[in-house]
């Protein structure tokens, strides 16, 4: 009898260990009715660069407009925006923004933190003389460190980058180059489970990588220098550890 109980207990533990990780309800960072074309989006907090609401085929989307980009220039009202994101801890963030002002970023206002799960965004490349790079920023820390996975239309590749202590470091390149046309919609989807990271472009898995440590930070939209791009359907799907 004791042996049967032991076997039953073992079977239960194996079943628990093998149980799938359950996803929570996804959060789509939707634009609000009060969003006005030409104004900053209300669902994202622009930190660097010009982020505005525009219309694409009658639908409101978020656009990064690199035509006015200047190196080292954060978005207007930086101090107030930093307080929205990090409250009393905003001073270190403000001090470090100038170090990554090469990269236009906009933080999702209603996503307090992301650790495990999936993030996806649809994007459309519009143009850019220096760069056509757009993607997902995640693991944004109060000191300004972050990770991002981005597609660069001048290189035709998907790449994971790490930004630490004011320096951007190449981390992992996609397994193949994928040319995309300007003016067409595409999707980046990334997933984090512990230290396991994956990223896909239009449903094709291109990056698999083991991060140095688990993710724990804010998320948002990312671009580079004078990129002009539109973003839609920024979706975060948390998963239990």
Describe the overall structure.
The chain has 241 residues and is mainly β. It has a single domain (27-238), classed as Jelly Rolls (Sandwich), CATH 2.60.120.560. It is 14% helix and 43% strand. The chain has helices at residues 2-18, 78-86, 90-97; strands at 27-28, 44-48, 51-56, 59-65, 105-108, 117-127, 133-140, 146-152, 157-164, 167-173, 185-193, 196-201, 204-210, 218-223, 228-238. Strands 1, 3, 4, 6, 11, 12, 13 and 15 form an eight-stranded antiparallel beta sheet that branches. A seven-stranded antiparallel beta sheet has the order 2-5-14-7-8-9-10, with helices on one face. A hairpin with a 4-residue loop joins strand 8 (146-152) and strand 9. Helix 2 packs across helix 3. The radius of gyration is 20 Å and the shape is globular.
């Amino acid at each position: 009898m004791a042996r049967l109980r032991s076997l039953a207990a073992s079977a239960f533990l194996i079943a628990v260990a093998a149980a799938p990780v359950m996803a929570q309800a996804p959060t789509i960072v939707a634009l609000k009715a009060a969003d006005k074309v030409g104004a900053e989006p209300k669902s994202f907090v622009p930190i660097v660069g010009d982020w505005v609401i525009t219309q694409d085929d009658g639908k409101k989307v978020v656009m990064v407009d690199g035509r006015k980009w200047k190196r080292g220039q954060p978005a207007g009202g930086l101090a107030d925006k930093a307080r929205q994101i990090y409250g009393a801890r905003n001073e270190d963030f403000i001090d470090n923004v100038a170090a990554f002002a090469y990269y236009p970023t906009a933080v999702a206002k209603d996503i307090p933190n992301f650790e495990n799960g999936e993030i996806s965004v649809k994007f459309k490349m519009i143009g850019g003389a220096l760069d056509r790079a757009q993607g997902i920023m995640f693991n944004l820390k109060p000191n300004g460190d972050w990770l991002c996975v981005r597609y660069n239309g001048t290189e035709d590749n998907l790449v994971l980058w790490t930004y630490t202590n004011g320096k951007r470091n190449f981390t992992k390149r996609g397994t193949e180059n994928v040319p995309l046309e300007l003016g067409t919609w595409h999707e980046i989807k990334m997933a984090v489970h512990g230290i396991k990271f994956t990223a896909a472009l239009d449903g094709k898995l291109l990056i698999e990588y083991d991060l140095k440590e688990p993710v724990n930070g804010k998320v948002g939209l990312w671009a580079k220098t004078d990129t002009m791009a539109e973003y839609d359907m920024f979706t975060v799907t948390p998963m239990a550890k």
